[in-house]
Predict the 3D structure of the following.
Amino acid sequence: MALCYIEIKIDLPFAQNLKDKRSILTSISSRISKKYNVSIAEIDFNDVWKSAKLGMAIVAQNGRIFDSMIECITVYIETTFPEIRVSIIHKEIL
């Protein structure tokens, strides 16, 4: 069994308040969690309107799928929400 933890920074340039940010993050989190079967939560920048940091944990039988899965998740976020900028800050495979 292998575990991958990643931190993703998301820029939300169009968010006008925390309510906008929360609705977008809730949508992103629920969609990714259902589609890719990962655990996801907001871990930083809680009171900042225009950015968020998400932590994701992925568990698999082997570690060979992590890179492709992370790429699929980032592409999915960018295509589903084209106005959002995504960058991976930290990746750790255990």
Remarks:
- Helices lie at 18-36, 66-80.
